[in-house]
Design brief:
Length: 234
Amino acid sequence: MTIHIGAQPGQIAETVLMPGDPLRAKWAAETFLSDVEQVNTVRGMGGYTGQWNGHRVSIQGSGMGMPSLSIYANELIRDFGAKTLIRIGSCGAMQPHVGLRDLVLAMTASSLSTPSSGLMRDVNFAPSADWSLLHAAVHTAEARGAKFHVGGIYSSDTFYDERPDLNEQMVRHGTLAVEMEAAELYTVAARHGARALAVLTVSDHLQTGEALPSADRESSFGEMVEIALTAAFK
């Protein structure tokens, strides 16, 4: 048990999927896992452990933004022995060729800063995905015939962004999408020798203003979860 995760020793699997929304964690656990046990209720941030195709898996909500994600990722790795952490969540497309419901496999994650930035005052650290996970996710997405994109994303500190100039530069430099957590996940995992990947579903588009209705988001996110689970055990 830690300050933010009330699980007992042995209740967290070595492979953890991390959606931001605790309700999405509950939905994913009930939809894709069998023999599910709720292992965390602290601060309403649900965590669940169950079985997927004979493999033990935990799904733990991370909250919004890098500071919240950092808390859960650190505790999962240091205190519960998690070795593979995969963020599953939504993102906003930044390129014209990236459409709603497309998948984005984040190879790198740029940011203005992360909670870990203070450790590297003199270095602009480049957070990147674990190659074995990214490679497995690409092959899984190809086998499923999914529409996906691989490349760099932007992890923003703010949801209501008022820096159109910065977004323009992200687009200019080929950034596929924006979200709020992956850069810190990749950094924490690298620091502790764990594997990390972000598998994201495009829920809205910064250039066109398109957005998935709330009712459509849950049904559109199933493929993302299945790809993440398959990649974790390839």
